[in-house]
Design a protein that fits this description.
Number of helices: 1
Structural class: mainly beta
Number of strands: 8
Largest sheet: 3 strands, mixed
Order of helices and strands: EHEEEEEEE
Amino acid sequence: MRAVRGKQGRVSGSLVVKIDPIEARNAGAQWRLDGGAWYDSGYKLSGLAPGNHTLEFKAINGWSRPSNQQVMVVENQTSQISASYSSRATAMPWIPLLLLDD
């Protein structure tokens, strides 16, 4: 007699990343995990292996992206991350003023 094991379900978790502010999202801000495909803010990425993963943010013109982060995906749970882009306000070039003596 031998023991037979049934098929076990795949162990996985999910991740949702919210990106702020809306102006950055409108400018094309996105995120990806472990160098994969890019996703929009609020997308739920499922079927992830539990453990540490690298979260990266897309570079967009006029904005400083958040730094890469290590995120922990937990079995049978949805991890939620929030991140904010910062506006890189265009500085006016310095223009010297000439003061003339009459």
